[in-house]
Specification:
It is built from 15 helices and ten strands. The protein has 431 residues and is α+β, with helices and mostly antiparallel strands. A six-stranded mixed β-barrel has the order 2-3-8-5-7-6. Helix 1 crosses helix 13, helix 3 packs antiparallel against helix 11 and helix 3 crosses helix 13. The longest helix has 44 residues. The N and C termini lie far apart (71 Å).
Length: 431
């Protein structure tokens, strides 16, 4: 007699593949809904908790917007010197605080020293000189232009400073030698004094002196820190000294024949100018050499210092914010002990309770990061309204949000772990 075999039905419950993904997703959505309800129920407490994170993220976004805007503007404006040009001047290009006694004691650079340097550098393509006077008023009929910068220069002034003539012409060597009453105007001066009209051939006044406009310069856009070439009136250097005296120090500009000879020409110019100034071999230069490369290096060094300082401020603010988030989450666990016990008694697993409180902490920190980013954008918009370059880079937004969420995650793990470890029986007896 053959033995019949009876197969027991498969007791395993097969869960559809789609449901394996939707069940955890629904659980996280529920956790998010509970987190939003908990935060909205304590708005003031949550807002005060977020202050540290808001300040930290705002610091990062605002400083990065400032540095990013300055970098873009400086990259654009580095052409203020021609690509193969450099300058020799009395003072450092950028100075924070007072000059040292050695720098303050430097003698001015004179026109005669300019001529001696020009004779000493026959290999240079151009050698020019310029002087500046600020906050003057230019007049044309009933129109005025306040805050005008007056530049007195040799004919090389326009090419050395990369200021192409848009209409008319620049002044000649003869006009520069004879202190001719001529002027070349920047775009802002043209807009103010001759709105909708051609200024070439017209008359303007600087002080009581009447000048004939012989040309205009192409619109450049103002520098973020420093001169605005569009608000400049350029006149021959001899006329400048006649108007404003000879007490000012000249700035000398030198242009190399090609980029390859630039470094060699700089060394030759420094050596020649040391001899002209009578500087002993054992002493330091009593002048500064400024080029696009030196300005870029200076800005990069300044950016590094600012980024380090803002990084320290951000770290301290986020540390305070993280401590605040951890504290508020510990308070939330204590306040909701009976709720946690009830959920666990009804079958909620430790992972579910853990994820609920972690999501709540991350959401709290995320809101703080979002507010900090918004305030950073507001600071950027205010800067743009004040015509100061500021542009928030996308990576700064991602960094601010990411770091704030990371702080929330780190600060929420311990309170969430404590909540998940509560004994339901003990938790339900909590008053």
């Amino acid at each position: 007699m053959s033995e019949s075999v009876v197969q027991a039905p498969d007791s395993r419950v097969r869960i559809p593949a789609l449901e394996r993904f939707t069940v955890p997703l629904r659980a996280r959505v529920d956790d998010l809904r509970l987190a939003l309800g908990a935060l909205s129920g304590h708005k003031l407490r949550s807002g005060l908790t977020l202050l540290g994170i808001v300040i930290g993220v705002f610091t990062v976004v605002a400083m990065m917007a400032l540095l990013n805007g300055l970098s873009k503007s400086i990259n654009k404006q580095l052409g203020a010197l021609g690509a193969d040009s450099f300058q020799i001047q009395r003072w450092p290009a950028v100075q924070f605080g007072n000059f040292s006694p050695e720098v303050a004691a430097r003698k001015k650079i004179t026109v005669s020293q300019f001529k001696a340097l020009r004779d000493a550098l026959p290999q240079a393509k151009q050698v020019g000189a310029e002087m500046w006077e600020y906050a003057k008023t230019a007049y044309a009929g009933s129109y005025t232009n306040l805050g005008t910068q007056v530049a007195g220069g040799t004919p090389e002034f326009f090419t050395i400073n990369n200021l192409p003539v848009a209409s008319g012409r620049g002044y000649t060597e003869a006009e520069a030698d004879d202190a001719a009453r001529v002027a070349v105007l920047g775009a802002t001066v043209v807009d103010s004094l001759f709105p909708g009209a051609d200024p070439v051939g017209q008359k303007i006044k600087l002080g009581r002196m009447e000048l004939t406009v012989i040309g205009t310069v192409e619109r450049q856009g103002g520098l973020p820190m420093g001169d605005n070439p569009d608000n400049t009136v350029a006149i021959p250097i001899t006329l400048f000294m006649e108007l404003y005296g000879t007490s000012r120090s000249a700035v000398l500009g030198v242009t190399a024949s090609d980029h390859e000879s630039m470094k060699k020409l700089q060394d030759q110019a420094v050596g020649a100018f040391r001899r002209i100034r009578g500087i002993e071999a054992s002493k330091e230069n009593d002048f500064e050499l400024v080029s696009n490369e030196s300005l870029r290096e200076m800005f990069d060094n300044l950016s590094t210092v600012v980024m380090l300082a803002s990084g320290v401020m951000c770290f301290l603010s986020l540390l305070v914010g993280g401590i605040g988030v951890m504290n508020i989450m510990l308070v939330a666990v204590t306040e909701r002990t009976r709720e946690i016990g009830l959920r666990k008694a009804l079958g909620a697993r430790r992972l579910r309770v853990l994820m609920q409180f972690i999501i709540e902490a991350v959401l709290l920190a995320f809101v703080g990061g979002a507010v900090g980013v918004f305030l950073g954008y507001c600071a950027s918009w205010i800067g743009q309204f004040l015509e100061f370059p500021a542009a928030v880079p996308p990576w700064a937004v991602a960094l601010g949000i990411g770091v704030s969420c990371g702080v929330g995650l780190a600060a929420g793990i311990y309170p969430a772990w404590r909540a998940s470890r509560l004994d339901p029986a003990v938790a339900l007896r909590d008053e």
